[in-house]
Structures are given as C-alpha cells and as structure tokens.
Amino acid sequence: MNKDFKDGVSDALLLGVFDENKSSSMYKQGYDFGMWLWNQQLEDKEVFYD
Question: pTM of the entire structure?
Fold first, then answer.
C-alpha cells in the first residue's frame, strides 16, 4: 500500500485535516477514503444509540 494513501487515511481519521502540502493523487484518495470511514462510524453510532 502506498505511503501517501496511508497518510491521507490517517489524516482524515485521526486529525480531520487535509494537508495542503501533500498534493499526490494517492494522498487525496486516501483522505477521501478516510473521510468515508469516518462517516460510516458516525452512522453506526447513530443506529446503535437510537
């Protein structure tokens, strides 16, 4: 797995901040995937607590 992709996923999940200094397409894909995972977690928590 590409390091830029991993960095994007971790930035999205752990920091919630997109690093403008990292402009590779793999970083952007990783960030998008990390944000998707974050949203899935939120949806799961809402279902659990309802």
Answer: 0.84
